[in-house]
């Protein structure tokens, strides 16, 4: 993925995380990175260096809660949405969708010369 795409992804990362957690009850970090990669057929990848600060910020905002579980001898930290997280997910997804639609309109403009 190009550097420009990485910048675009970084700007919408919190919305992507909220959407994934809205669709699933809980996920751990690596699972989030793999789901994004799978859903975009590898076109988008989220690095741990971008993901974990975004998760911690959402947690600090009170949008995520965490739960630690031992799975096959390994400790996993699962993230899930709080009640406020569900509200914010709907709001931020709606905002990003509207932005993308407006961007699409602008990108599809025909030259007027």
Q: Give the terminus-to-terminus CA distance.
A: 34 Å
Helix and strand succession?
HEHHEEH
By CATH's scheme, which homologous superfamily applies? Winged helix-like DNA-binding domain superfamily/Winged helix DNA-binding domain
- Derived from helix and strand composition plus strand pairing, the structural class reads alpha+beta
Work out the number of β strands: 3
Q: What share of residues are in beta strands?
A: 15-25%
Sheet with most strands: 3 strands, antiparallel
Number of H- or I-type helical stretches: 4
Q: Name the overall outline.
A: elongated
- Write down the Rg: 16 Å
Cross-sheet strand order for the largest sheet: 1-3-2
- The overall average pLDDT, rounded, is 89
Say what the CATH topology is: Arc Repressor Mutant, subunit A
Helix content: 55-70%
Counting copies of identical and different chains, the oligomeric state is single chain
Regions with little confidence, pLDDT below 50 for 5+ residues: none
Which CATH architecture would you pick?
Orthogonal Bundle
């Amino acid at each position: 993925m190009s550097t420009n795409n990485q910048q675009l992804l970084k700007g919408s990362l919190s919305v992507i995380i909220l959407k994934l957690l809205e669709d699933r009850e809980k996920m751990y970090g690596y699972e989030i990175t793999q789901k994004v990669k799978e859903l975009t057929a590898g076109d988008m990848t989220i690095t741990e260096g971008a993901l974990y600060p975004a998760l911690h910020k959402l947690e600090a905002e009170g949008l995520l809660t965490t739960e630690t579980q031992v799975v096959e001898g390994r400790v996993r930290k699962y993230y899930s949405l709080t009640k406020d997280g569900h509200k914010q997910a709907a709001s931020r997804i709606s905002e990003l969708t509207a932005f993308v639609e407006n961007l699409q309109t602008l990108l599809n403009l025909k030259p007027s010369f």
